[in-house]
Design brief:
The protein is extended and about 35 Å long. The chain is mostly helical. The protein is 37% helix and 0% strand. The N and C termini lie far apart (34 Å).
Length: 59
């Protein structure tokens, strides 16, 4: 993958977050409906622990 196309961040943002980021924010994908974000964040925490880098929200 070319350097200019690599993903450097993924985030869950509110409308207020987007307003603060302003025009400098280049791309977003809006999610529709309800999503189980707690399960997603938990899975990310589990994967971090499995890799030995505990960056969980709780500790």
């Amino acid at each position: 993958m070319a350097e200019e196309h690599r993903i450097v961040a993924v985030g869950l943002l509110t409308e207020q977050d987007l307003a603060v980021l302003g025009q400098g924010f280049r791309r977003l994908y809006r999610l529709k409906g309800t999503h189980d974000f707690d399960a997603l964040l938990s899975a990310i925490d589990d994967a971090d622990r499995a890799l030995g880098s505990d960056t969980s929200r709780d500790g």
